[in-house]
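Hey, resending since the last one bounced:
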Amino acid sequence: MPGCVSLPARVYCGFCDATSGEREAAEVTHHFSTGFCTLPIFTRSPYTDILRIGSDNAPNADAPRLLVCEDAPIERAGLSHLLRLKGYDVVEAADGEAAIASLSTEHFDLLLLDLTLPGTDGFGVLRFLKTHMKRLRVILLSGTSPERIQECMMELPDHELPPLLLKPVDPESVYELVEMQLSGALDGLEPGAGEKDLQNN
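The structure tokens again:
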């Protein structure tokens, strides 16, 4: 049996069972502040062989533009490569400062944000967004302990987080959640439907 962890609610988790290979998705739709839920955690190397799959597709001119902010080079490269293969226009950032710089000068349709980053961490980026870009669609990735996530969440202005994927994740689950966010399927769960950058590009 996989281990379980109690987490603040309103979490989306996509994990892969190391023994059966079956991906499971858990969706909790109420707010973090309303309680806790218990979700299964499976372990598997999620980016095995991804970087060996073909070459990146050139995105269409109207392809959604994503910013992937992840400090782990293999995870950032693997996830970005997968999303490019799916047809997205992907920009990479290795830390919070680089993410904020890109968000301040370019337009993005969605941000994939790791919470644990050197310097300005993911929560620092979220504070920036909540001040300047409240309606930008965001998906969080985290290997941080649930207790630490809860502590840092309470320091945010609204005590809420965007959809969260716990590491290790099945990369296809990230893609599926990206599709849901961009399609507006999650609009009933969190405010907003996209955001223009600070320069209104």
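DSSP finds five helices and nine strands in the chain.

Sorry for the duplicate.
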